[in-house]
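To whoever is on call:

I kicked off a structure prediction for a single chain this morning and the downstream step that reads the tokens threw a length-mismatch warning. I double-checked the sequence; it's 402 residues and nothing unusual in it as far as I can see. Pasting both halves so you can look.
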Amino acid sequence: MRVVVTSESRFTRTPDGAVWVEAGPDNSIWRRYLVAFDRVRVAARVRDVDRRPEAAARVDGDGVEVWALPYYVGPRGYLLGRRAIAEAVSAAAEPADAVVLRVPSPIGSLLARARSRARLPYALEVIGDPYDVLAPGVVRHPLRPLLRTLSTRTLRGQCREAAAVAYETERRLQRRYPTLPTTPTAGISSVDLPPAAFVPRARPVRRLPDEATVVSVGSLEQLYKGIDTLISALALMPADGPRARLVHVGVGAYRPHLERLADRSGVADRLRFTGPLPDADAVRRQLDAADLFVMPSRTEGLPRALIEAMARALPAIGSTAGGIPELLDPECLVPPDDPAALAAAVTAMLADPRRLADASARNLRRAHDFSAETLDARRASFYRTVAETAAGPGGPARRPVR
């Protein structure tokens, strides 16, 4: 059986037909579905390019193909091309296919609507929360309030209609987007770390250097990750307390904006953007060289970057957004958009070697909950449930329209 999976990632295709992603799920992620299915088709936006982008990873291959959808950018591009996009999405899945929609997603919503009209089942992987993604201060768009209302309502309806639902979080998304009582559900993080992601032991109690290194990781295409809050917090740290420099791993359109903010805040000499890094080992080296990881996000699902930092036994401070409170102790949490609270939390953590060591040990223990060995069995069971639902008794399952 084939499974069709929708994705909001944007891919590129080189003249040889290979499909690539610069930041997002690569072939290793899509191969996970092969534990229950013979083939995987990923429906996503694809644009053609002359050569492979720098630091891009392969998407297709090893039982995985990509169904190219029209390449649009933003709500306006979606609205202008909606008819062509809907036709391409509907054609991606045949009645005998299993369908897994990674939501929230305009692309996923189009296929959900098509499956509902045909009275065919679909499953969901809820990997984010539109209520948080479209919160004030996260996205700057005149239609933000309307989009927030509509997308939240849509996701709630999809969760009640889906044949099976897997949530990225352990509790948070389940409470906001419940299913029907009889629907099979699972809490399965998409983060499953290989053995190489983990260090063997926690960090000991030690004296920090005169200038500690704070590291953050995340895309700069939007201000979701709150790096502007972190830069402002760096400027608010007291002169008589621990001194810190910030290294950010990630690229995106807002980098010039953040560089200007750092300059205005007087901390440009204590900020470095790494630019694109070639592989996971390079990211791990940045984490290993740091003294504290900070994730001041305005919105999150269950953040892979934080879990990867925890697997390196790195102490961490995060915001209360999304699934971050499921990972860190309350004493390591601050509200989003609060530079003063973040500055105080970073200062207090860096000033206390014992607290840093305790957080290191705690984070490493928690990160092991996201090892591939721990999650593979749970994910395989869910995908087999999806396959059984799609097959149904004697063929493709059909359900009544609710």
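Update from on-call: the warning came from a stale cache, not from the record. Cleared it. Sanity check on the structure: Residues 394-402 have pLDDT under 50 and may be disordered.
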